Amino acid sequence: MGGMFLRWRSSRRGAVVACACAPEWPGLRAELDGHEVRGVPSPGGSSPLVWQLGLEATCTGCGADYPHGWAVAARD
User: Fold this and answer.
1) How far apart are CA 57 and CA 39, in angstroms?
2) Cα 3 from Cα 11, distance rounded (Å)
3) What is the pLDDT of residues 41-69, one digit of tens each?
């Protein structure tokens, strides 16, 4: 039996924790295979790449889990 199966990761998020930084959410980051991935808020919801890889963003300042949609930031 062949085919491609996506590996969905369960969410570790429970209660929403507010960002302790001022201003809130100075930056977003996630980890993928030991490497930091920078993120940006996405008002339309998380990007397909974020969903497919099961990435979860945290604040670059205080480490709070980001509770909204986000996308991987473009490289400069």
Assistant:
1) 7
2) 25
3) 999 999 999 999 999 999 999 999 999 99
